[in-house]
Amino acid sequence: MVYSIKNKLPIKLYKEMYRIRSTEETIAQKYHEGQMRCPTHLSVGQEAVPAAFSQLVKKDDFTVSSHRGHAHYLAKGGNLKSMIAEIYGKKTGCSKGKGGSMHLIDLSVNFMGTSAIVGNSIPIGVGLGLSAKIKNTKQISFAFFGDGAIEEGVFYESINFATVKKLPVIFMCENNFYSVYSPLDVRQPKGRSISKMVSAIGPKVLSCDGNDVFQVYKTINKAIQKTRNGEGPFFLEFFTYRWLEHCGPNYDNSLGYRKKKDFDNWKKKDPIIKLRKKINKKFYPTLKKIEQEVDKEIINAFNFAEKSPFPKESEAYKGIYA
Amino acid sequence: MPKEKNKMNFASAINDALHVSMTKDKNMICYGLGATDPKNIFSTTKNLQKRFGPRRVFDVPTSENALTGISIGAALNGIRSVVTHQRLDFFLLAMDQLVNSAAKWYYMFGSQRPVPITIRLILGRGWGQGPTHSQNLQAWFNHIPGLKVVMPSFADDAKGLLISSIFDPNPVIFLEHRWLHNTNAIIKKGNYKVKIGKAKICKKGKHITILSMSYLTLEAIKAAKYLYDKFNISAEIIDLRTIKPLDWTTIFNSVKKTKRLLVLDTGFTTGSVAAEIIAKIAIEKFNMLKSAPIRLAMPDVPEPTSSALTKNFYTRADDIVISVLKSLRIDYKNIKIDINQPGPADVPDPNFKGPF
User: Based on the structure, what is the number of domains in chain B?
Assistant: First the structure.
């Protein structure tokens, strides 16, 4: 069903992935201009999970994410212009220049925030899930994080609580095998399956190839249906790979912390190319048109950010207390 | 026969404040380890679950950090929480959520969504609480922009300040001294509020200003009476009530009048709230002072457990008396200061039998 071109799903997924990729690549390309003056963690190579998520999540569902949060913000429907303006430190930014790339928010789509501290937003996502349960709404709360967050105590605390309380929370783990430059094998025992370990805590667990957007779609879809039905929480693990350096706009294979062979293999599994190959060539002109539209939207967003005013210096000392 | 006044102890006043607040705000939740156990956190959470149900009042896993983040998440969707920890020391496991999230969420996302949470932390001294069950770390919380810190000394203020904390849109650290739980006061009924950020002049005086917080205010009152009876010294006692934001107007006005200052602090000496107060007075009001300000705080060592080691460890009324005499340059070397209650120094009163 998901492969059907009739429901335009592949085209939509393609558009979402392309939009995230191009936004991130434009940031990377313009970063050296020195106008985006904050740490920036890009999701190039990891677009399949947010793209599939974007087609399934409801506007009033809650989402929180991590330092690598641009893709999730965009996938939830967060305003592109406000995000770029935030990275530029402008008054028009989604956090008025106070948060930067690592602190994104768009309350109009219930994207509730991203955090720079590993694992930090996970319990906040659980609290949002608890609030939905208390208010008896059908909302789901999604918490995005990476494999590094699994090693934080707060991950265990949070998923344990969500499981005890049967909360409508979906834990979205994008396992890209690295925490900064530290590989999984120095951080977790050899042969461990994160999913199996988490399963023992008690939530329902699913995992799949995080670069195959259809598999991701099916996985998230299943979790959402069950969670909406009161059968949460869910823990989803997606295997994927970060192409660029941990923080910043460059490729960093010269550092030698990961094998070129691994990198090349993952690059061959580019989620966008993978999807493109599955789409009938007769739709390629449509894709081209979509790419042009998206490129234009991104150029507009950067123009907006560049032309926007900076906040007044005095704003730094305001807004500490509500 | 006169109508019996609504007298209750500090712990019951906390309980009363929670009942009033949960009645007023139908979405408010209340949780903490032991919140619904038979002891009800020193009776402070008594009958809450019975009255408001398990959805709003519940016991929890031993997960201080996540529980703090959970209250933040709930707050972002408009649900106020009161989270209680039976000892402040356990809450140190939650510093990430408190400092990186609760204190900053409002500011760092451009002042869009407030975080109305109240974190009740019980602290204390004595009864062998020792190195990790007795820490008074108000100075830590005081250091963090975005937090409010409340530290009542009297049962009526405890009620009024707790209700104000709960309905404040910001994260509030509410510090309860275990030695105050059994102290009594006349408590106003219903939705009684005491403003956060306003100190209370407990006793007017003209010779010296004593700034105090939490349990030490009781020792200060004892000391002031003694100073008056024995030396005809009139000390002004200001109970800070709120540590952050401090009521500088009341502090400055009093120091302007008395020109002498003693600050009492239940925390460690270095980097204490007392240190901050004295620094600001020295920087901004140097010319007001007739003598060097004095602080009395805990020594910079972990609190030992054995009562043999803590005989003279805590600030008591006699220490306050001596500090005041020093400030007024009165020679006290040959005077016997017979003010402390007889008996051990590690209990608030002889009836206190622990276990904690």
Answer: 2
